[in-house]
Amino acid sequence: MESSNEGMRDRLLSRLPQPGNLADYRNEVGALLEKNEKRFRREKWYSGALWVYAVLLGTAFLWLGADTRHATTLGFYAIFALIFGAVELLKHFINRSRVELLKEIKQVQLQVLELQAAMGKESV
Amino acid sequence: MDKASRARDAWIALRCQSGEADAFEDLIAVMERPLLYYAAKLLGNEEFALDALQDVWMRVVRGIRRLQDPASLRPWLYRITYGMAIDRIRHDSSRQHAEELHIEGVEEADEPDFENADAAAVHAALDAIDLRHREVLVLHFLEDFSVAEIAAVIGCPEGTVKSRIHHAKKAMKQILSRGGYGK
């Protein structure tokens, strides 16, 4: 069933004509991918910048509030800023390592499946 | 869908989610033609299908990080394509003809298979069957999706999908045996 469908799939796809607006489509998709890459780079930069900002803000609150009567309030703000920055950074790291780990696992799984397929072919 | 295809899909999805530079290009290289074929069969025109596909990629780029199960990448892509195509069809008055649908009971009979059928004939005959039948049969031919996967793509109960596949195959068989496809 699978192999027949596989054959039918390829044969059907080969019937697909090249539409006239293919060039416009390629340009649009190219621009979309470029934009997306920029977005990813910006996001990476953003999470680092957020942490630096939180640390600087926290330090500023502690520094400015050291000798004033608002020391407690500013100290509270400083801790809040640091916790907020740390949580955002941690979320980013956890998500990144989760995806990276899953990626590694999938890669190994793919290699195993390819080896199994190669061994199956040899035995036939 | 076999295990290896699932693993390959999951790997590409994860690469996209992790922001790997070439991952989207690989995804497009693998899925562009089947999705275009599906959209073209739903919309009946390759030019419209290409426009719809452009919108599909935009949604994919924005939404792939919210995809919970990377192995279900392919059904997810077809679901988006289906949604885009149906939106366009709804705007089109020719929908009236396509919407004539009867959900019939499934008769227990031998399922026709098209293993040895001419691809050109199948390709043309697909255009001659009802849209509701065509949308499930194209998924069946292209991806060998399970009934549950097709149901998830088109948003219908599994029983309805089963019924549609059955009747679609019967209709196809009739058209092919008459040799009246593409006329």
Helix and strand arrangement:
The complex is a heterodimer of chains A (124) and B (183).
Chain A: H1 2-13, H2 22-65, H3 71-123
Chain B: H1 3-17, H2 23-43, H3 46-63, H4 73-91, H5 95-98, H6 119-128, H7 131-143, H8 147-154, H9 158-178
Task: Please provide a written account of the structure.
The complex is a heterodimer of chains A (124) and B (183). Helices cover 88% and strands 0% of the residues of chain A. Chain A has one domain. In chain A, helix 2 (22-65) runs antiparallel to helix 3. Chain A is mainly α. Chain A is elongated and about 80 Å long. Chain B is mostly helical. Chain B folds into 2 domains: 3-95, RNA polymerase sigma factor, region 2, helix turn helix motif (Rna Polymerase Sigma Factor, Chain: A, Orthogonal Bundle); 101-178, Arc Repressor Mutant, subunit A. The radius of gyration of chain B is 17 Å and the shape is globular. At the A-B interface, helix 1, helix 2 and helix 3 of A face helix 1, helix 2, helix 3, helix 6 and helix 7 of B.
Tally of discrete structural domains of chain A: 1
Summed over residues and divided by their number, the pLDDT of chain B gives a mean of: 83
Q: What best-fitting shape of chain B do the alpha-carbon axes yield?
A: globular
Please bin the fraction of helical residues of chain A. Answer: over 70%
Gap between N and C termini of chain A, in Å? 19 Å
Low-pLDDT runs of chain B: 100-109
Q: What is the chain-wise order of helices and strands of chain A?
A: HHH
Give the biggest sheet of chain A.
Answer: none
Percent of residues in helices of chain B: over 70%
Radius of gyration of chain A: 27 Å
